[in-house]
């Protein structure tokens, strides 16, 4: 094949352009610190990077949900602790009133204190967190426990599966125990807490010590229900804490995988850039000799 000056120039320019593209590639990587800047660089890698970034965003959303749920259950636990203290105080006062040595005036004083404890307990069960009542079921904007003058009523929703469900990971949900009707109504069918207090107040007004003694068992049942609910919420807290640990671990794995696919190895990239720049400069130096050759060089 005859090698002409035109062919040499074309070949030189093609090689120069190739070397220039490589230099530009490493310059861009060094300036952005990323392996790829556009889909055309490596479509598969870019697709994987996009997927990883979406996974990281989803992970952050799950973490926000988990932290919110943990705070929610902490508020519930504190509310139930206060409610339990009130019920235990009511139990103690009722036990004192059942003593035959107390007179009518003493029992009326006890009644006043029990009424105050009932209001304190209701305040605890009506605890609001971030604009949501923690024991109102799915209707979290309605105050669940109200004293309408004739007794205590539960105003929260009481439909089946009344607890709030939170998605804490892909395909993983946890139910927060928000159904206050379980705290209001005893499962054994012995009545609700409003009826219990009505009976306590009536027995105090009638100085009925026998009835006051009988009511102690019902008060204890409500205490047990409250304590059991608090225990269940504690188990949910443990599950949420474990989920938070898994979320943090998953975040680190995702960030590590993203870094491997997206970030450059600075030392290796700079070395490649230096090699390609040397090759580019060598091509430029050679090009000056090829392109400067003219007809007079062949006459000599």
UniProtKB/TrEMBL annotation:
Molecular-function GO terms, alphabetical: structural molecule activity
Pfam families in the record:
Flagellin_C, Flagellin_N
Q: Where does the protein end up?
A: Bacterial flagellum
Q: Which domain of life is it from?
A: Bacteria
Q: Which InterPro entries match?
A: Flagell_FlgL, Flagellin, Flagellin_C, Flagellin_N
The segment(s) forming the Flagellin C-terminal domain are 218-298
Q: Which residues form the Flagellin N-terminal domain?
A: 5-139
Asked if S-adenosyl-L-methionine is a keyword of the record, the answer is no
Q: Which UniProt keywords apply?
A: Bacterial flagellum, Cell projection, Cilium, Flagellum
GO cellular component terms attached to this protein's record: bacterial-type flagellum hook
Q: Which residue spans traverse the membrane?
A: none
Q: Name one GO biological process term.
A: bacterial-type flagellum-dependent cell motility
Family statement: Belongs to the bacterial flagellin family.
Q: List the protein's name.
A: Flagellar hook-associated protein 3 FlgL
Q: Name the source organism.
A: Alkalibacterium putridalgicola
The gene behind this protein is flgL
């Amino acid at each position: 094949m005859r090698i002409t000056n035109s062919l040499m120039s074309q070949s030189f320019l093609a090689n120069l352009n190739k070397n220039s593209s490589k230099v530009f590639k490493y310059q861009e990587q060094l300036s952005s610190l990323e392996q790829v800047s556009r889909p055309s660089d490596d479509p598969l890698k870019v697709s994987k990077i996009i997927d990883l970034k979406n996974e990281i965003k989803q992970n952050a959303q799950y973490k926000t949900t988990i932290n919110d749920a943990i705070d929610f259950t902490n508020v519930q636990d504190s509310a139930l602790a206060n409610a339990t203290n009130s019920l235990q105080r009511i139990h103690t006062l009722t036990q004192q009133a059942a003593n035959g040595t107390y007179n009518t005036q003493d029992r009326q004083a006890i009644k006043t204190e029990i009424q105050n404890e009932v209001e304190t307990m209701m305040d605890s069960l009506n605890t609001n967190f971030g604009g949501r009542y923690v024991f109102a079921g799915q209707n979290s904007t309605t105050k669940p426990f109200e004293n309408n003058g004739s007794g205590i009523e539960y105003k929260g929703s009481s439909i089946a599966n009344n607890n709030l469900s939170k998605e804490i990971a892909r395909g993983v949900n946890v139910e927060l125990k928000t159904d206050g009707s379980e705290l209001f109504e005893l499962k054994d069918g012995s009545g609700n807490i409003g009826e219990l207090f009505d009976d306590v107040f009536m027995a105090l007004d009638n100085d009925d010590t026998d009835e006051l003694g009988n009511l102690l068992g019902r008060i204890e049942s409500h205490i047990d229900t409250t304590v059991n609910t608090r225990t269940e919420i504690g188990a949910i807290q443990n599950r949420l804490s474990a989920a938070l640990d898994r979320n943090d671990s998953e975040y680190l794995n995702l960030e590590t995988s993203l870094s491997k696919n997206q970030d450059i190895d600075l030392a290796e990239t700079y070395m490649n850039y230096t090699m390609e720049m040397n090759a580019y400069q060598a091509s430029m130096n050679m090009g000056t000799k090829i392109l400067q050759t003219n007809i007079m060089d062949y006459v000599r």
